[in-house]
């Protein structure tokens, strides 16, 4: 513990986009459209809420569109991983990036299964991959973060640069036509970072927010707890506000997490659907909401991960996860799996017959 440590001074990032509140005046029209479908009211359950949310964020009670969904997998390395808090060494981050680029990872298979386009973002892995690929975007902040148990993970400048790099890729993908942005991550050690971030902004005890990540031993788990505690102890009085979120990112964050946070803010500002994956991506989403609460209304939470603290993040976000499949992989796998449910919500909203059009009469709605 460093009792005299002052957190790095962070100021809000000039250039983060404005996010407007959604137009709630559209709700009656959206709800009427759903109510007139040939079914008992509410009987499509959460699919109805999903359709309502998508219509509201797209700003029209008319037809919904999920244009050109893309999965963005942000990869970066974490200094904390030098302490063996994962089942894998740091080098695996880069090896998995190469695996993504050759199409061999779980996320490649699940994107294929959900007809989702895919891109890998090098946000700061240790050693760059020297591959020419249309699927790779390089926006490296540095070759990995510092070990946050000993020193701030990144500088305030790096934190700002990462957020803005996230905004840029979101804008580029949206300019290229994306209506849905799925978010995934790859970074050995990043459950340590995500747990530390959650402990800080939510003011939760470290013991409650640390899980087993890739599946570590009891001994590794105790070490992980100690190291996260050391990092978190440097910061006092963090809460769910923009400055605390940025301080937390600077102290214990990761370049992929910060870029995801920025990209979500960018996607929210342009009213695109943000499809949130598991624990780590949900923590990035929480930080985005700390920075700008308006981002929340554009987020869909794909699944509930088996990583212990994910449920706490979902509760903080008042979110219901679409799937609960005991996944604990990350990469965006849960988000890719959930995309067909979003498509289903849009198709029923757009195409299902109404009582009038189908001549179904006498049903009380
Ligand atoms: C082969 C392999 C593939 C992965 N794909 C995602 N992760 C997941 O595990 C890591 C987080 O867990 P921890 O904090 O315990 O390191 C992240 O890279 C995450 O994406 C993987 C991990 C491994 C080993
Ligand atoms: O839920 C996640 O995102 C997760 C859980 C364990 C390891 N990697 C990712």
TrEMBL record:
The active site is at 331 (proton acceptor). Keywords: Cobalamin biosynthesis, Glycosyltransferase, Transferase. Pathway: Nucleoside biosynthesis; alpha-ribazole biosynthesis; alpha-ribazole from 5,6-dimethylbenzimidazole: step 1/2. It catalyses: 5,6-dimethylbenzimidazole + nicotinate beta-D-ribonucleotide = alpha-ribazole 5'-phosphate + nicotinate + H(+). One of its GO terms (biological process) is cobalamin biosynthetic process. It is an enzyme of class 2 (transferase). Its EC number is 2.4.2.21. GO terms for molecular function: nicotinate-nucleotide-dimethylbenzimidazole phosphoribosyltransferase activity. CDD domains: DMB-PRT_CobT. Pfam families: DBI_PRT. PANTHER family: NICOTINATE-NUCLEOTIDE--DIMETHYLBENZIMIDAZOLE PHOSPHORIBOSYLTRANSFERASE. Catalyzes the synthesis of alpha-ribazole-5'-phosphate from nicotinate mononucleotide (NAMN) and 5,6-dimethylbenzimidazole (DMB). HAMAP family: CobT (MF_00230). NCBIfam families: cobT_DBIPRT, PRK00105.1. Belongs to the CobT family. This is Nicotinate-nucleotide--dimethylbenzimidazole phosphoribosyltransferase. It comes from Parathalassolituus penaei. The gene is cobT.
């Amino acid at each position: 513990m460093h009792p005299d440590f002052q957190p790095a001074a962070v100021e809000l990032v000039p250039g983060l986009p404005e996010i407007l509140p959604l137009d709630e005046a559209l709700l009656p029209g959206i709800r009427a459209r759903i109510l007139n479908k040939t079914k008992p009211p509410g009987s499509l359950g959460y699919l109805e809420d999903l359709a309502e949310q998508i219509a509201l964020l797209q700003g029209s009670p008319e037809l919904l569109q999920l244009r050109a969904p893309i999965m963005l997998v942000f990869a970066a390395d974490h200094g904390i991983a030098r302490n063996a808090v994962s089942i894998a060494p740091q080098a695996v981050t880069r090896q998995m990036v190469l695996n993504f680029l050759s199409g061999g990872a779980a996320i490649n298979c699940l994107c294929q299964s959900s007809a989702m386009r895919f891109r890998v973002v090098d946000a700061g892995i240790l050693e760059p991959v020297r591959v020419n690929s249309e699927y790779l975007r390089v926006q490296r902040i540095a070759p990995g973060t510092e070990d946050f148990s000993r020193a701030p993970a990144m500088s305030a400048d790096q934190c700002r640069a990462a957020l803005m790099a996230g905004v840029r890729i979101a804008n580029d993908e949206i300019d290229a036509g994306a209506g849905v942005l799925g978010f995934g991550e790859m970074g050995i050690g990043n459950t340590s970072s995500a747990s530390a971030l959650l402990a800080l902004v939510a003011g939760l005890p470290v013991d409650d927010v640390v899980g087993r990540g890739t599946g570590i031993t009891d001994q590794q788990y105790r070490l992980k707890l100690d190291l996260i505690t050391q990092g978190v102890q440097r910061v006092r009085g963090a809460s769910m506000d923009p400055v605390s979120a940025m301080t937390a990112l600077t102290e214990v964050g990761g370049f992929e997490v910060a870029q995801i946070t920025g990209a979500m803010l960018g996607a929210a500002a342009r009213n695109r659907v943000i499809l949130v994956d598991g624990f780590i991506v949900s923590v990035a989403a929480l930080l985005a909401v700390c920075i700008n609460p308006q981002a929340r209304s554009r987020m869909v939470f794909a699944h509930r991960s088996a990583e212990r603290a994910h449920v706490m993040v979902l509760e903080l976000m008042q979110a219901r996860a679409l799937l609960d499949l005991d996944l604990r992989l990350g990469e965006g796998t849960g988000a890719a799996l959930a995309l067909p449910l979003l498509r289903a919500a849009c198709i029923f909203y757009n195409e299902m017959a109404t009582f009038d059009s189908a001549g179904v009469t006498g049903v009380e709605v």
